[in-house]
Amino acid sequence: MWPAHRYLIVHTPPGSGIRLRQGRNIMAAVLATTLLFGSAHLIFAFQTTRPDCRLDAGPCIQTSGTLSVVFDISPKPLRVMRELIFTVTVKDKGRSVTDASILISLSMPGMFMGENIVRLSHRADGVYDGTGVIIRCPSGENVWQASVTVERGEKKSVSNFVFEVL
Ligand SMILES: [Cu+2]
C-alpha cells in the first residue's frame, strides 16, 4: 500500500482541484490493494497442504546438505490437547550432532493458530526432545506443520514436516 501511496503523491501535479482527485486515487489504490491481498489471502487459506510425513508409520527424515534431521512425536496415535513428546535426531555426515540448539514451531498450513514453540534439549547421541501440546483446531482441520530449526553456531537450518493429528 505504501509504494502506491507514495507514487501518487510524487506524480500528481500541484494545482487546484487536484487534492480531491488525489484523495480519490489513494482510496482507489487502497481498495485495489485490499482486493488484491484479500483474494490472495483467500487462495492461500483454501490451499490444501498435503501431509508429507506419516508419523503413524514411523519417524520422518529430511536432509539438507550434509545434515539429516529425523522427526517423531509420541505417544501414538497422536491426539490434540494432550502432552506430547517431540523427538529430533540430528546427524551431520552421519555423525551425531550433540551441540545444536533446536526448537520446533507448530502451525497449521494456511491458518493462524497462535504461536506454539517447543524447545528441545539434548539427551544423548544427537537425540533431542521436548514436550508440547497440539491444540484443537476450531475448523476441524487436522493437518499440522512442524518447522524444526537446528542452530549450530552461525549455521541454521529449517526442516518442515507436515503431518496429521487425530
Ligand atoms: Cu486450525
Description:
- The chain has 166 residues and is α+β, with helices and mostly antiparallel strands.
- The protein has 2 domains: 2-46; 55-164, Sandwich (Immunoglobulin-like), CATH 2.60.40.1930.
- Helix content is 23%, strand content 40%.
- The chain contains 2 helices and 9 strands.
- It has helices spanning 2-11, 18-46; strands at residues 60-64, 67-74, 83-92, 95-96, 101-107, 117-124, 127-133, 143-152, 155-164.
- Strands 1, 2, 3, 4, 5, 6, 7, 8 and 9 form a 9-stranded antiparallel sheet that branches.
- A hairpin with a 2-residue loop joins strand 8 and strand 9.
- Helix 1 (2-11) runs antiparallel to helix 2 (18-46).
- It is globular, with a radius of gyration of 23 Å.
- The model is unreliable at 1-20, 33-37 and 39-46 (pLDDT under 50).
- Residues 108, 111, 113, 137, 139, 141 line the site of copper (II) ion.
Features:
23% helix; single chain; disordered N terminus; Immunoglobulin-like; globular; 9 strands
